[in-house]
Amino acid sequence: MIPLGDVQAEVLRSVAPLAPVWTPVTDALGLVLVEPVIATEPVPPFANTAMDGYALRAVDTAGATEGAPVQLRVVADLAAGHAPTVPVGPGEAIRIMTGAPIPDGADAIVMVERTEREEPDGVLVLHAATAGDHLRPAGTDVEPGQRVFEPGTVLGPAHLGVIASLGLPEVLVVPRARVGVLSTGDELREGPVELAPGQIRDSNRPMLLAMLRDAGFDAVNLGIAHDDEAFVERVLGDALTTCDAVITSGGVSVGDYDVVKAVLDRLGVLQWWQVAIKPAKPFAFGLLRGVPLFGLPGNPVSSHVSFELFARPALRRMSGHTEPSRREVDAVAANAMPRRPDGKLHLDRVVVAYEDGRYVAERSGAQASNALAALAMANGLALLPDGDGAAAGDIIRVMLLD
Fold first, then answer.
1. Residue 213 Ramachandran class (φ > 0 left, ψ -120 to 50 alpha, else beta)
2. What is the mean pLDDT of residues 62-73?
């Protein structure tokens, strides 16, 4: 058996980021920047008010209180989106809305809550203002020439808002990996069909397609490969020309023979590994016509764990992420997690919570490789090295899945 770290390192060495593309800002959520974003203009582009209120000269409000307000004359109203046409002179004020430009002569804003309007054109100021109150000068968020975001930045909603505020319609990013998923096995069926003896419904493909979408990739449903080599070769051949990577589930154990394995061996050279882990010991990987193919085991839990350990990190690297792997933390075992020595790293499915300044983990249920319901309850994988396992209260290493 091969150590987990050796296989992970080999897979990551074999893949590289996809060629960058110019992408509309509206489609760039979750993508990784290739070039820095450099501001060509200030944000905000002009001095404006942070509050609804009155633009005025702070000196005209000296000594103003609720008991002794200062009266000013209102000379105009100014809404956001409109340029001021009237300056503020001594003893004057302009009613102003949030985001509107600061009119000439004004050096402060008094919030509307600290005023009382006197019709027809007066306002009582109940609070003494200080120059600069509630003013947002031009460029306070972003200045011209500023490197706003560096290459390698993963673009979130706020990043896209900043880029849009600079007037940039596109960004140069690593595209989302487009990944095809093919289930293998003549026993597989899907949907509400009646199952004959020996048949099961395909759960791996819907699960893997969802995992891909959840990780930010474009998932392509390649269907189920039954015992028809011509069909399988056609589907895989098409996938290798339209996808950035391909995932298959099933048919990777030692001694397995199915049509997918036969077709794959004709299309290229795969490495068929027995990894020193439980679950997910069998794993296949190779570049077919330059396209990475990940052969995951058929048991549902094994397929899920194998995706997390091998496919997801590689696909994240292909999508430009500099930290491809899930975060690991130390956690306290809430209860005993016994195991038997067998030369493998065990990855137990656990529920992880953060309590009193520390992570606490407990098994989520049955640990068999087909117990998908228990995996659905888990949000972490406890990494139990070869030996007798962990006692309650021991510190264990956990890979977080959320």
1. alpha
2. 96
Q: Across the strands, what pairs with 295?
A: 248, 284
Selected residue with higher pLDDT from 20 and 195: 20
Q: Which domains does the chain have, with CATH numbers?
A: 4-18+176-318 (3.40.980.10), 21-44+140-174 (3.90.105.10), 48-136 (2.170.190.11), 328-400 (2.40.340.10)
**Cβ contacts of 79-82, under 8 Å, gap ≥ 24:** 80/48
When computed from its CA atoms, the radius of gyration of the chain, rounded to whole angstroms, is: 31
51 and 99 Cβ atoms separated by less than 8 Å: no
- From the list 169, 165, 157, the residue with the least C-alpha distance to 46 is 165
Sheet of 122-125: strand order equals: 108-111, 53-56, 92-96, 70-78, 122-125, 115-118
Contacts of residue 1, Cβ cutoff 8 Å, sequence gap at least 6: 274, 275, 276, 281, 343, 344
Query: pTM of the prediction?
Result: 0.87
pLDDT value of residue 179 = 98
